[in-house]
Write a structure and sequence with these properties.
Layout (H helix, E strand, L loop, with lengths): L13 E24 L4 H9 L2 E18 L6 E17 L7 E16 L6 E7 L6 E7 L3 E6 L3 E9 L12 H4 L14 E25 L17 H6 L5 H4 L16
Length: about 270
């Protein structure tokens, strides 16, 4: 074993125990989300009912609600149930002679992934300070693995007008914090309203993470090398001259043959 008290010649200084999140299993996916029903506020629904045509401008992921449950009869595996909530931005044309109206709506998508997260039955208690008293309390938790979802903003593929499919259409409870993005309640009933069906392209990485204690080499304490700068007197042109020229934006990198780390098809 190397001398743990030296940091010369690139050798580590000491071995330290850290509590970190280890990724036990992960997967990546690309999903084409076709014809997701969009929900609107009463004001926006009025424009949708009068619409002659629409255009999907952009979409963003507002939040992902995740539920992790053990898989029965398959020890160590867990079901990650995810609900994606999207904010979609539309241009609504109510006639051929008027400018389009910008309208925002909410749509959602459910996704499931089965991943390996190992086993464990330990209860963890962490000391915290309770705001309501001067005593130090402990909060207990199980060591269930944690599901982490990474995604980029979805690709807006298209949208079209249509009639609601009534009670046969899949519905979802929309949380309050999602509704706050639009500022008003959504029209959830059908009542012969016209609605919008949007199609998005979604890239995701799903990981199952569990906290473990690991022994790692430590080289030294990390001191910041950058000095704090609070000078804001630079002129705009001076700031612009210091920017790196965006060569990659003018000459995008070429896609290499077979360069597909996720193994997804075209």
């Amino acid at each position: 074993m190397a001398d743990i008290n030296t940091a010369e010649n690139g050798e580590f200084r000491e071995a330290v125990c850290v509590d970190v999140g280890r990724v036990y299993d992960s997967c990546c996916d690309r999903d084409c989300l076709e014809d997701m029903r969009c929900y609107f506020t009463a004001e926006s629904q009025t424009y949708i009912n009068q619409a002659k045509s629409i255009r999907l401008k952009k979409a963003e992921v507002l939040n992902v609600y995740i539920d992790v449950e053990p898989v029965n009869f398959n020890r160590g595996f867990y079901s990650c149930d995810m609900t994606f909530f999207f904010l979609v931005n539309l241009e609504v044309f109510t006639s051929h002679n008027t400018c389009p109206v910008d309208v925002n709506g909410i749509c959602f998508y459910n996704k499931k992934a089965i991943l390996f997260g190992s086993e464990g039955s330990v209860k963890t208690f962490t000391s915290v300070m309770d705001d309501s008293s001067c005593e130090t309390q402990t909060i207990g938790s199980t060591n269930m693995p944690k599901c982490v979802v990474q995604t980029v903003e979805p690709v807006a593929l298209g949208a079209h007008l249509g009639k609601c499919k009534g009670r046969y259409e899949k519905s979802c409870y929309i949380p309050k914090n999602i509704l706050e993005y639009l500022g008003s309640p959504l029209v959830m009933d059908d009542d012969d309203n016209t609605t919008v069906y949007a199609s998005l392209g979604l890239f995701t990485i799903v990981q199952l993470v569990r906290n473990v204690q690991m022994l790692i080499p430590a080289y030294d304490f990390c001191m910041p090398e950058k000095h704090c700068c609070g000078d804001t007197t630079d002129q705009p042109c001076d700031v612009f001259r210091n920017l790196k020229f965006p060569t990659e934006d003018f000459f995008p990198p070429r896609s290499l043959d077979g360069d597909n780390p996720c193994g997804c098809g075209n």
